[in-house]
Protein 1
Amino acid sequence: MTRQLFLTTILIVAATAVAADLTPAPAKSEIATKYGATAQKIIAAAMRDNDGLRRLEYLCDRIGNRVTGSESLEKAVRWAAEEMRKAGLENVRTPPVTVPHWVRGSESATLLEPFQKRLWMMSYGLSVGTPRGGITGEVISTLSPEQLSNLGRAKVEGKIVLFAVERDRYSEAVNHGPARAAAMGAKAVLIRSGFPMQGPHTSQLIYEEGASKIPTASISVEDADLIERLTTKGMPVRLRLEMEAHFDADVEAHNVVGDFLGSEKPKEIVVLGGHIDSWDVGQGAHDDGTGIMASLEAVLLIKQLGLRPKRTLRVVFFTNEESGHRGGQAYRTFIGDEVKNHVAGIEDDHGAEKPIGFGFGGAQHQALFPGAYQRALEIGELLSSINAGKISGRGSGGDIRPITEYGAPGFAMRTINKEYDFWHHTEGDTFDKVVPNDFRLHVASLAVLAFVLADMPERMSELN
Ligand SMILES: [Zn+2]
């Protein structure tokens, strides 16, 4: 050995020893050892994938939004079932779901005094409409349901109430404002949408039980602020609200269900999905086209990679999430006793911004099953290379709740959640808002989680 080679050898040995001493490799969990390579393979395939995006684009641009009860929702159901069949899923079915049929109709709000101007509004889903010819009235502006109560009935009766709320009090205004205003004799309610650029924002309106129902609409931030500035200066503000919103008779809609049967325990099922319905505005891209298309693609990728987990992976596109959750309840009825074979439910319904991890099982599950929570953390580690493996509490979702209530652990996709609230339920929820690589990360996360849940030796609920 030359002197130089000898020194080099010494240095390499020393460097290796230092590295080994100072940075001991963390002990790998059994899950990491068993599934690490598979997870990386799935992630790499998901990041190259374009099929999921192609389907999402078709759904958005060729079918469009899919409000409960509409023909476009049925069109989406037929198309989705056909796509599942073409891609080789098994037992593709579209079980019927009886759903309410709320129709928006035409609607408008016009400022009449102190000057005439069109106002940017959108009625809340399930709101009642106005009488033909609309409602004309003076506007009273308030900052919260509580502040409205303090005004006293005399000031509110016969008026149109504007809740000029900031975003942090938006939900409170939607949930309690209409009932409070109706009880005080108001004729209609407007709520500041909380999201700028003249974009009103719809969502499901739930009238409080026993309260009389008055027409309720979202109004743009800019128009709400204009009215607020005028009323604050003591100026009388009058407007006319016209809303044709009404219910037609219940109609039959459908869930879409497709299986990738397990190799050893096909009767045990991991469900993953989101909702196929949307509101009747925008394209229902983030809410929830991305959730259903990412779930389908996750399962198809696993299949294409030649991986078949021991248990069945089931993709479910639930219907009527936005205005009643009848799809989730109907799925529970559809499976009957089979619910006991549901090993886990995964829901992706918070838009397709960059994922950070999953909510797990609800706080209840975390407390009841520390072993299962530990396992969820270990599965999360498999997603650490894409920073999508953080496991937090409260993992159920509206559609999978009927099966998680029965006892199957639930996982809910969590994202950075920066702009979703601005887009969803508005005309702005369109395909262009979906960042391709973020969507691919959803596919990767769902596929890794679903595969491991379906393939690991124990059922999640056995780990206590
Ligand atoms: Zn949704």
Note: The chain is about 40% helix and 25% strand.
Protein 2
Amino acid sequence: MTLIVTFNMRKGGTMKTTLVRNLADGCARAGLKTIVVDADSQHTLTMTMRVNPVDALTTLLTDDTVEWGDVLAEVPEEFSGAQREYFYLLPTFDGQQAIENQAGIPDRIYERFQELRGYADVVLVDTSPGAGNIHAGFYQVSDGIFLPCLCELESVLGLTATLNHLYTISQSAPVAPVMGIIPNHFDASEMVQQINHKYIVDHYAQYGRIFNPIRDKTIWRNASQNRQSVYRMTEHKSYNIRKEAKIAVAELQPILDTILKAVQA
Ligand SMILES: Nc1ncnc2c1ncn2[C@@H]1O[C@H](COP(=O)(O)OP(=O)(O)O)[C@@H](O)[C@H]1O
Ligand SMILES: [Mg+2]
């Protein structure tokens, strides 16, 4: 089946884009037909995957004559390390802001992304830190939602806000279940983080599986600056970078396995 998953969190800087970018390469390397969607007008995902930022998402949602094949961009070999047979990105740009509050956008998202069913194996959607029309559309068309968060108060509040938004929308339309809450940037030597982590485990497990925290590591930033996936960084010439990249890949594995299993279901 085609699995559409959306990454969202009201708070910014919680690893949404980093997770989407790297998990996408994990899916593509596993042989899945993979489409990544940049639905954040800041277009970080587009840039860090080496694709030109253009208003493809906006065009797709506002122009009926446009087809998916017209707007998808191939993910360059330099990002993944090898040309994957079917690895595409739907870019975005500033023009997205103009449609963010437009009526009918959630329905348009629903219609257009349903068209992907049967074509791609997996569609990973990166959203902006917020809770608007665009998020509402993806909650409805997705099969699952991942909520990445930090082990700090602001993220805990962000989790509550995001879950509230989901609940509100679910009163008028079916929404996807939470496939996982992913604590990250974790530093076990910080007492406050440990306390917040425990709080998240104790209070949010009822909403979705809580994954083991992803540690705070420079490799994630390095890979983003190099505009390469952490998988590709495991082939780096420096031994230390290869080692760190392998740790990063291992930390992604349980999330990747969850996605792969859901695709096979
Ligand atoms: N586990 C991590 N450890 C250290 N830095 C990270 C980690 N995950 C992401 N980063 C860095 O944190 C910043 C924010 O991550 P990003 O994925 O862009 O967040 P979001 O998309 O949620 O706003 C980026 O500079 C990224 O490279
Ligand atoms: Mg982002």
Note: Residues 12-18, 44, 129, 184-185, 214, 216-217, 220-221, 224 surround adenosine-5'-diphosphate (ligand 1) (CB under 6 Å).
